[in-house]
Amino acid sequence: MSHPVSQSADKVIDHMTLFRQPEYKELFERKKVEFEFGHSDEKVAEVSAWTKTKEYQEKNFAREAVTINPTKACQPIGAMFAAQGFEGTLPFVHGSQGCVAYYRTHLTRHFKEPNSAVSSSMTEDAAVFGGLNNMIDGLANAHSLYKPKMIAVFTTCMAEVIGDDLGGFIQNAKNKESVPQDFPVPHAHTPAFVGSHITGYDNMMKGILSYFWAKEEDFETPKTQSINIIPGFDGFAVGNNRELKRLFGLFGIDATILSDVSDNFDTPADGEYRMYDGGTTLEATKAAQHAKATISMQEYNTTQTLQFCKEKGQDVAKFNYPLGVAATDELLMKLSELTGKAIPAELRLERGRLVDAVADSHTHLHGKRFAVYGDPDFCLGMTRFLLEMGAEPVHILSTSGSKKWEKQVKKLLDGSPFGKNGAAYGGKDLWHMRSLMFTDPVDYLIGNSYGKYLERDTKTPLIRLTYPIFDRHHHHRYPTWGYQGALNVLVRILDRILEDADRQTDEVGKTDYSFDLIR
Known about the structure:
This protein is 47% helix and 10% strand. The protein is of the alpha/beta class. The strands form 3 sheets. Strands 11-10-9-12-13 form a 5-stranded parallel beta sheet, sandwiched between helices. A 4-stranded parallel beta sheet has the order 2-1-3-4, with helices on both faces. Its EC number is 1.18.6.1. Keywords: ATP-binding, Iron, Iron-sulfur, Metal-binding, Nitrogen fixation, Nucleotide-binding, Oxidoreductase. It holds the Pfam family Oxidored_nitro. GO terms for molecular function: nitrogenase activity.
């Protein structure tokens, strides 16, 4: 190199600055010329411009053989998330070590919290002959080393392709005394090549409840007045689950959150190591069979599980991410209906404060155009709240969204004058969203961290409000459900809008006539 090295032991430069130094600029240019053999900058710019056209959008939406940046993760991540919401539970991935490392990393990057899980360490021989021996040894080691109260087993692609029988393998392992016969080892088949993380969550939840509720209904045991709540896969679970508990306390309701991850993904740094923290107790999980009703906070996360609860004689109710005034109203009225308890006066005051906050700020939201992407339930809840605030949701996209989901979104849009320009896109990905944002631009984008590439490409400001959020910290500690949660979301959206207003008016002598102190 023709330049001296900028970094030394005495002068450590952050990578964001280091790679802008002359020697690295020269290195990158040589790499481009000598090794990449790409197209000219002119050709790249020409093709890039074409991908922003209506002509390209038609071709983009016609593709069938490839998915580009979907708004979903794979089934085992959802299964791991569900399992970690139960007391002393060790997730056990029947598959390779690399798979479990990915799932753990994905959750850790969002929650900034380590999470424990093991695998059966399947390799090439297990792929040919089956993973029974891996299961026998793996369960024995996991039980002996990590002292869990429950081991929740689920699969990866490899185990599903060769057709391993989890139920049979687990029983064989128990017969070999890997774990005691009465030790709880629920399981779920979670092939990563179909469905998504919300499917895996549903499969694991049903697997765990089926294990504890497996016996025929004991009709001599009367139903209790307790209510079960299933939160679903939720990146804001730490804040939302605690908000639910607060609501139950105000109501005086005996409620059980089935899969409560709030402590496991928010353990304190107090000098005590907790491999397992919090979670729904196994005793409460067993007793939940006799609850009066089970409520799902996210319909599309719990399709099978809620049907299973219904078959056990429970009343069931389902919501679509209860965010905003009307959605919270419906949740509280359902709780009141099921329990016979009046909605607490304190919650009525919270509702009024939220309505007041929306009224204070609606002028900044009115007429703003939004694109929204994420899980089906999140998109429904977010769209509904935007319409309440007088904003205009234009592109609503979910890779896991079905035709039924599209109809639900369309019904929401048709029910408001602010939804007339909106459309739902189920089964589409973020490359589809890119086309939509270039041909029909919006003011703001709501989604997860992967939207930052769309933000850079389309110059549309991103508001991070769903899982995963990798590049910002601690959002998951604040609720998005209930009146208080809706207020948090309102503030997040407003902050981005007002920051944008400052950015657009900060040029001295040219635009700063609108650089207002009060907005």
